[in-house]
Amino acid sequence: MTWQSKRRAFLRTAVVATAAGVAGCSDDGSADTPDEDEELTESATPTDTPEETDSEGETPDESDEPAEPDEPTDVQNPKQTVDDWLSNTKNYDGSINPMIGRTDVSIGVGVDDGSGSNFAFGKPAIRVTTGTKIQWIWEDPENEHNVRERNGLFDSGRPVASSGKTYTVTLTEPGVYLYRCSNFGGAIGMRGAIIVEEEQSLSGYPKVDEWLDEYGEYTGRLTDRTGESSVSVTVGARHDGQNRSFDPVAILVDSGTEIVFEWNGRGGSHDVVWEDGDWGASRTTADASYSYSVTMDEPGVYRYFCRTDKPYNGRGAVVVR
To answer: Are 122 and 168 members of one domain?
Structure first.
């Protein structure tokens, strides 16, 4: 899969400063000037700088803005790209924090990098879906920081020292976004990365969501039954005033789990037929003492249905991980 970073990859940006103290830029009192390298491209049209205010009513000077790349950058291996970008980031341990499904994510600015210095972002690498709102919150009143995407796709403005200032973007395009603090993102390694994936479906399994699209009680959540060796599913469960459904309708289990379908004797005759997988169908019966079981050994998505009740949402799904 090819990942791309694109300009205008956010719906809005916002900056709010609730503390306006400004301090020196580095340990020796001089700024660690950002490297003039490929990280900040020098050509093309600059992006708009977000409006910035502080508690003293002053409008900070706008920083020199990095340029937009001439065309999107292709990223064939997002993880490797993040590893390379954060190779000198002290609080990056090689893991990307999964934030899939969250609508809002907060990241500290100027947090302890593990060495006693406040030269890090709180979550150096995260994975989110399109439409997620990312908010950076300044936590260092002594050193000046900002948030600047490598290709200028977002920029909080000039570095400031603050405790409480915020900057927010909403990312709407999939891709890998690499950012840094202009003052400390060079040799000191104050950098961050965001992998943005398409929001494909409610549950994360498009086959399940499409299969159960018309089932009114399906919310996109899988019933988590991982850790159980055997899981029961009721056949003839009640839905919309009729006993034509399965309960639970969509479940998540571990490989090797036995799924036991148990008839409740209501709603007439039922059966279980597999849309996926090579298990044979159950008997078609109304017998409340009847049960039918299969063992799910292979990871995947397995859909099933009742032949007589399929038009009435007599469907279900098992996700095996």
So the answer is: yes
pLDDT digits (tens, 9 = 90+) for 71-128: 334 467 888 999 999 999 999 999 998 787 678 999 999 999 999 999 999 999 998 8
Same domain, 238 and 149: no
The DSSP element (H or E) to which 272 belongs, if any, is none
Backbone angles phi, psi at 209, to 5 degrees: -65, -40
Number of H helices, E strands in the chain: 2, 21
Report pLDDT digits (tens) over 123-135.
Answer: 999 988 888 999 9
pTM above 0.70, yes or no: no
For residue 169, what are the domain limits? 3-197
Q: 284 and 186 in one domain?
A: no
* DSSP codes, 15-76: EE-S------SSTTSS--PPP-STTS---SPBPPPPP---TTS--PPPPPPPBPPSSPEEES
Domain count, the chain: 2
